[in-house]
Please model this.
Amino acid sequence: MTTYAQVHAEATTQATAAVDKFFNDVLKGEDQFACGFAWVTVYPENKGNTKLGKAERAGLESIGFSKDWTGKAWQLWNPGKYAGQNIDAKEEGAEAYAKVMKSYGFKAYAGSRLD
Model:
């Protein structure tokens, strides 16, 4: 059985690798162009007032997710841990993270916005 921590570790590894590859191959090692933010949003499968729903939300929170402004989804900002401002690099990390989460059955989506 795979735990939330194991999924998070794999997703973070993939996200960080995607950011590094983009930064080196596309940006040529220079933080340039548009600034912005990126995140991953996960929609829980179970109702929040059930045992499964509470466990699901606790699992997401244990790996760094927090409730979004709607109160119905959980978000993790900058999953690729990119320290610069380039939105494209951050989006690469969010997409990679969401892809891993989806492979484990989560309803996960990458999001971003310009600053």
